[in-house]
Amino acid sequence: MESGYAVEVREVSVGYGAKTVLRDVSFRVRRGEIVALLGGSGCGKSTILKAVIGLLPVQSGEILIEGESMVSCSWAARRKIQRKFGVAFQGGALFRSYTVRENIALPMEEYTDLSREEIDRRVREKLKLVDLSGTEEMMPGDLSGGMVKRAAVARALALDPHILFLDEPSAGLDPLNSARLDDLIRNIRNRLNAAIVIVTHELDSIFAIADRAVFLDRDAGTVIAEGPPAELRDHSPVEKVRVFLNRGHLEKKE
Amino acid sequence: MNGSSCCVRFICEIGDATAAVFHDALKLISFTGETISELFLALRNPLRIRWKETLYYMNMCGANALPISSLICLLMGLILGYQSAVQMHKYGADAFLPALVGCSIVRELGPLMIAVIATGRAGSAFAAEIATMKATEEINAMQTMGFSPWRFLVIPKLLAMICMMPLLTFFGDMFGIAGGMIVGTFELDIPVHTYYTQTVYWVPPRFFVESLTKSIVFAIIVTGICCLRGFEAEEDSLGIGRATTSSVVTSIIVIIVADTLMARMFNMIFYGSAV
User: Fold this and answer.
1) Which residue in A17, A79, B164, B270 has the fewest CB atoms around it within 10 Å?
2) Which residue of B has its CA nearest to A106?
């Protein structure tokens, strides 16, 4: 890891076609750290995440995953780098024609020489980690929303990555399931010493699990604040950030 | 609106349309390149092929399509037989019914009907499946896991269609000929044995080669276009519907264009001239 960071985003500009959505975005994530990318709807949280995981080409800047460039590498090299991290998408994105076991086993079957028994053992282990033991042979369509999200996290952990990207993990979940997922994310960080990047605007989750928050703003089109969530809420020099993290209470008082 | 602004707008529209055509052409070239590259890798190392999915698609677009394909081809043979029998009987040309039905079914209608059925059954399902996977971010998930969506989603379908379409076409040809035979036997009193020997005489094996060659080309066209439309779909329910419709319409048009070119090509090969 040349740069010493698990994820390093350096002055990245990204957008769709000729339109730039975010300009000069920079942030870094260390191993064992949970960083929340937050901001209002349409501020580009998911766009920057897509750029970091290699789904969207950047217009300028550099993205390093464990010191390796995702921007200036070949297509084959990017596929190799992508195996270093796991991604859990907002809707889970489990392959619907595969069982839960097949979903989690797929990366292991493709990228390792493990025996069928060893793969099955690891699948059971991952499912136990996300509290989904016994669902191996279920189809994704038979799982509840919370179970799908947890199964997606289990799949993201299939190759024991050091980096995990979670896109809106708590969106659409009831408070109980949301809290369980927060516990799970903390647990994964503690057990694997993983760098975790979460895209979210769920304030409860941010305060519960994030070590740092990177606040993106639609009008500015870039990062306008960065720091521990509680500190940003109480002492951020940017009023917009304080209002957002106080659920708009400051605005109401005014 | 004055004349000059109208002219500027017209030029802009031509520019936009030209850019769209180039954009589509670029996507088509990229899709074709990815598919050929993955197919080459798969053929070089058959262990890379997702056999489970390939067998599933073989069952779906082959075995499961056999009853409907056979029925439609049988009916096509019956219809062609009835319509021809009426006209041919007037001129005392009953004996040529096996030739007309056999050649028409084997050289044209068999492969064409099977391709149209495959487009409606399998092609639309391919487009809808890929478009849905795009909408539910399954394709994004595949890419971030370092998997090629072509390897998982296109190659199994392509191999299944290339294997199954010729088989379906062969069965379709047989059922079409049987349809003509039913008319010949019951309407024109041609003995079954005579109808059979006449068919064998007028429909040489090279016509089956033409039929099966066309079916392979049609399999590639249907799979390619339907998968491409699926990948191009917008990520919402309307987009999935539009992709499915567009895949069927485009496939049928391209199949007919390809059939026209191949009909000319095979006439040149068999008879040395296009007509």
Assistant:
1) A17
2) B145
